[in-house]
Each structure stands twice: as structure tokens, then as C-alpha cells.
Hints:
Helix content: 55-70%
Number of helices: 20
Distance between the termini: 58 Å
Shape: globular
Order of helices and strands: HHHEEHEHHHHEEHHEEHHEHHHHHHHH
Structural class: mainly alpha
Radius of gyration: 22 Å
Strand content: 5-15%
Largest sheet: 2 strands, antiparallel
Strand order of the largest sheet: 1-2
Number of domains: 1
Amino acid sequence: MGFTDSLADYFGFEEHNTDVRTEVIGGITTFLAMSYIVVVNPSVLAATHNPDGSLAKPGIAIAGYTDAQTVQMIAVVTLVASAVAMLVMAFYANRPFGLAPGLGLNAFFAFTVVNPNVLGISWQTALAAVVTEGVIFILLTAVGAREYVINLFPEPVKFAVGTGIGLFLAIIGLQAMGIVVNSGATLVTLGPVASDPRALLAVLGLLLTLALYARGVKGSIVIGILSTTAVALVLTLVGVVTPTTLIGGWAQPGGFDASALPQAQYDISPLVGAFAQGFGNIEAFGFALIVFTFFFVDFFDTAGTLVGVGQAGGFLDDEGDLPDADKPLMADAIGTTVGGMLGTSTVTTYVESATGVEEGGRTGMVALVVALLFLVSLVVVPLAAAIPQYVSHIALVVVAILMLSNVTAIDWDDLTHAIPAGLTILVMPFTYSIAYGIAAGIISYPIVKTAVGDYDEVRLGQWLLALAFVVYFFVRTSGILQSTV
């Protein structure tokens, strides 16, 4: 039996009506669609500093290492953690799903959890929360408690989370691009796009990326980022832009930071195992809230993605469920746990997997191809630090627009759904916190249900969750505690 025959036998090509060529094409397609995360995840998670050493953007900052070196470390961890998750997906779940650190959860990590102006906990403790969430996910998946967990959370909140995260990503991306800036009069306003070449370039790069995506060009986000970076490099070389400036309140390189290229940082030892330090000196309730938020978003984002991509691939049964869903969920859970141990935020299943499925990919061979391509991408790790954030964050705005479509699943004609969903969506971007948005929806759901006489539709667990969040908000905003964690 040849190698190709062995692959066909192991992954069940005949059963799924596919072949090696189709699976490889599906894997390459999925890789091109989701590979932007290699650049974007490090730029979101890593802290940046002003020339005077003050903090410009919250995130992971490692003593003794430059911002560029930290970015490269996180890029390595991103690739390795993603590959591990996809190898589990390939050989254990045998499904064509790609996995990587999730957009939205990495923003929650950097802009809410470790942000000194919000929760302000250490990045090590944030990683400890990721690992804890991953272990809980593994245990719940192993004992088959998925259905109970899904039923515990109000349906309108589940449907609203995706749209809320989309708006949250949008404001982060638009600020980084210089399109939206701070305003003393209106909080935010339009930036000086016409007079700032970086902001203008970011707008043009965004429009190019959206145009490519609309035309169905494979790898459109990657092409858009790399094309915009090339123009930024030219503008830097001819002196149109300066090496460093403030955009959206962040210190930004003016173009392609070529100085980072010869300083490739593959030693990730400062990140690996750092989560263990994070378990010291934690405040139980605040830590539990962070773990809960990571778990909630990861669990339901993954469940929704599996169903959506499964539908595109014809994997669902007559009841609309994905058979053996616990297996791909386990791949997600293991990826999250390993990722937290290595030094990145929560790993989740990517909706971009649908692109590979549309090309005919049907088995874990697709995930295997994507995993191998991610490992090969380790050679371009220096690019993660060289690409300006105002360019890489184009991806956040593109993904944000796509996530807004989730709003159509909400029953807006039913006020007991519209109110919790609306609060979830609105509170997320305006408080700069995914956790606060989820909490607002969970608190309001039993209240409005009871108000209209539908109290029998509210489960005891939902009341307990709502009460826990009320206590948290009181403690958080009353001044009783100076710091949550």
C-alpha cells in the first residue's frame, strides 16, 4: 500500500467522496484564508511603547526584550499552538477545520484583561485564565456536558455575541488605522485621514482588501496586508512618513520596519510556562469572570462555526447537529490549553474553514495540510514585527464587517430577545469589554422575561449567573476594591 493509499484509508477519502488532490487544495485554500492571524495575533497581543518607554498599547510586555522581539515570540507561539490544535483536528476528529488564536478573544486579553485602565491584571495571570478555560473545556467535552452548557446561556445572548465582538474589533482596528481618533468633545471622531499618509494608506488598503474579498479572491486579507505594507515601505524610504508616530494613541512604525528583520526571535522560553506564575495572588471572583468570558466566547464561537461550516460541507444530520461534535470541540480545547501554556490567547475554530470546504475538502487531511503550512510559515516570523499595526489591523475591520451578519439570527420582534441581545451588542464596544457586554445580556434576560410573565422560561442557573454578575459590577464600580485581581 502506497503513501497516498494510506492517507486515503486513514482519512476515509472514499467514504467522503474526495481524494488527495482535492484535500490538499482545500487545505491550501483554508491556509490562505486564515493565515493573516500570524501577523494580526502578535500585533494585538503584544504591548507597544512610546520612545520615552511609556506604555502606548496594552498587552504582553517581557522585561529585557524589545516590542519587536515580543511580537516575534508571539508569532512563533501562534504558529505552534495552531499547528498542535489542527493536528488533533486532523488525526482525532478527522474534520476539515482550521484553528488558531481567535480574533476578539485576543483583543479581550490585551484591551480588557491586561489593560491597566480596565482590569489591569498581569499577562501571566491572563494566560493562567486561558489555560484554566482550556482545561474546563476539555473536561466538559470529555464527559459530554456540551448540551447542558449550551442550554444554560440565554439564546439572544448567544446570537448577539458575534455581532458585539465585531463592533469591538472594528473600533480597535479603526483606531489603529488612524481613521477613528480620540476626541475631548465627542469621545471619538474622524481622524485626519487626508493629511496623515498612514491613515490614508490604511483606508486605501482596507478598500483594496474588501474589494478582493468581495470578488472571492483567495487569501484576500493576506494580499491586502502585504500590498499595503509594500506601499508603506516605499513611503518610508522616500521620506513621506517618519519612522515612528502616534496613531490612535499608539506608537506606530511609519512603514515596513526593516530593522526587525535581522533580529528574528525564535526563543520563546520567556513565554512558555509563564502562565504558572499567574496563579499567584489572584482574586477568585475576578479571575473566575475572566475564565468565564474566555470560555463563553470560545465555546459558542466554536459551536457556531462547526455548525456553519458543517452545513456547507453537508456534515449535519437530520436534526441539524454535527455528528461526533465532541471530537472537533476537543481539538479546540486542547489547542486552547496548549496555546495558553505556550503564551497565546484562546485558540478557536475559524469560520474561514468554509473556504476549504467549498473547494471540496471533507476530511482531516485539510487540517493536516493547514497545520504543515503553519509550521513552514515559521521562516517568515520576522515579518510579524516588521508590518505596521495600522496595516495589520486592516484584518480586524474586515473580519468585523463579516461578523455583523450574525445579527440576523436575533428575533428582534420579541422584546425579551431584542433587549438582552441589544445590550450585549451595545455594551461591548462602548465599554471596550466583551465580558461586560455578555454580562449585560445575561443580567437583563431573566428580568425582561419575568416582566412579561415568562418567568417559567428562565432556568435557575440563569438567575444565578445574573446575580453573580450584579455582585461583580457592584464590587467593580463601587470602589470597594481598588483592583479586581
